[in-house]
Amino acid sequence: MSEIDLHTHTTASDGTCTPSELVSQAVAVGLRAIAVTDHDTLQGLPEACAAGKDKGLEVIPGCELSVEFPQGSMHILGLWIPARPKHLQDTLDYLTKLRQQRNETILANLHAAGVPITYAELTATATGTTIGRPHIAQLLVRKGVARDLPDAFINWLRPGTKGYAPKAKLAPRDAILALKNEGATVILAHPCTLKQDHADLEETIKKLKDMGLDGVESIYSMHSQAQTNAYAAICKKLGLLESAGSDFHGTNKPNIHLGRGKGGLRASYVLLERMKAYRQGLGLPAHI
Ligand code: AMP
Ligand code: ZN
Ligand code: FE
Ligand code: FE
Predict the structure, then answer these.
(1) Of all atoms in ligand 1, which is nearest to the CA of residue 131?
(2) From atom 3 of ligand 1, which residue's Cα is the shortest distance away?
(3) How many other C-beta atoms lie within 10 A of the C-beta of residue 37?
(4) If both were cysteines, with which of 35, 178, 184, 242 could 6 make a disulfide (CB 3.0 to 4.6 Å apart)?
């Protein structure tokens, strides 16, 4: 079997495996290729790519960006980010600054609710450049304010709770252009989280395609077979690539396993071969 997982996180954002540990786990699971797609950062990519070369695992350098959408949540993956991007780092630096401001607001909200956490404690908890709610959740658990991570989100960090502050996001068009400008292949992550019915989703994906979207993550940990089939049908109809990923976060999402999702996820290397052929057709580098 030749399997892949094109959506994973490391300690560069809110995953709990270092890039090297992620690569070792992928090899142990028997995967042939992974994409490393941390939120808003490329920090983990050099280590992941080096470990991949060392261990004989194909590592596609990527990232994941949250974008504005009126309902649900829309995330965009960029695959084949070059080692020396032209402008993408400026965009990511800007997002990191916005995250810092948001984290300060969340900590101020928690403080007002009687839960004091300092920014120094937060930066000490995170090991990477992208610091988000999962890191604050870890601190809430460690301080005994929350029982576990889901409890921290339910009582303190999700919309409608005392700690919550919204995250500023790029417009979909700006995120897609920032990635395309680097020659990345751009994938709509987990279309299930858009919470749209089939017809509206198809309309949304068509608009994203007109902005430069290349594919859709039809195979995903939380998708039922019926959902995967429906998303695959949209890809076929619109001439888009299909992608596949678990959204592995290590122990921050303990029920999601690398390359296996909730257990039944299987993604063939054929999907990656199709992406590479598509990139070659566009004159873009397709090997690592
Ligand atoms: P942020 O980008 O800082 O808003 O954090 C989003 C991250 O928080 C996502 O990657 C999710 O994995 C995680 N997350 C969101 N909701 C929950 C939840 N209810 N329980 C645990 N993790 C969550
Ligand atoms: Zn995450
Ligand atoms: Fe996501
Ligand atoms: Fe993700």
Answers:
(1) 3
(2) 132
(3) 31
(4) 35
